[in-house]
Amino acid sequence: MEAPRSLREVAADLTARAVPLVFVDTCAVIDVVRFANTDRDIKLDVIEDTQRLVNAARRGSVALVGSELLALEVNDHLQGEVLAATAALSKRSAEVTRVMEGLDLRIGPGSRAAWDALRTKLLGLPDNLRDLADALLGEVAQVGDDRECLELARVRAVLRFAPSHKKESRKDCEIFEHALALSKRLSGAGHAKRRVFATVNLSDFDPTLLRAELSDAGLDIVPSLSHAYQRVGCP
Questions:
Q1: Of 21, 31, 41, 195, which has the fewest beta carbons less than 10 angstroms from its beta carbon?
Q2: What was the pLDDT predicted at 6?
Q3: Residue 109 lies in a domain
Q4: Is residue 171 part of a domain?
Q5: What is this structure's pTM?
Q6: How far is Cα 207 from Cα 204, in angstroms, rounded to an integer?
Q7: Does the residue 2 lie in any domain?
Q8: pLDDT lower than 70: segments of the chain
Q9: Are the C-beta atoms of 88 and 162 separated by less than 8 Å?
Q10: 116 lies in a domain?
């Protein structure tokens, strides 16, 4: 990731470029890997659309922005998620392997060999997704700490306003205040492209509680990077 820049500098750059904006929350990046540690099906839409979002950012057709906290928070959590996902996939693949061993006489060795090859790819998936998350971070422009945003975040956390309404979370408040401030600057400068805040944490970043502030800033909340890609309509 590039060195953090001020709100004013990032806003000026995005205004000149006139491209859609995705403000990336920490959990949206971690979610790219975390899904593999759940009982849900593999979310191919998240994987594919995250890759498309990275490609669009490399082409310059969308801007990815995050707070100064983003890389630090992602790196604090991501390796643990990779290890947990690998363990979960190993357990699942072991169960399938046992079934394949029991069916070997009926399905033939060719099917077993095909499963062994697929299993190797499956167990490598978390590391591949870690690489995808790193590629995403590499395209994110960091907004450096803004004194006014930090003060507003402190007040928001103390008063227990969303995203701090369930538990005091200064970091979430700081991220949100920077996203609001950037979107407001862009709106004031005539930026007419879509601007979204991507987070899977809709419990804290509750759109119903934040509706008025989001509307005032011209910012939408979306629940994943896949939704972000779909919403901004990257060419």
A1: 41
A2: 95
A3: no
A4: yes
A5: 0.86
A6: 9
A7: no
A8: 35-43, 100-110, 112, 115, 235
A9: no
A10: no
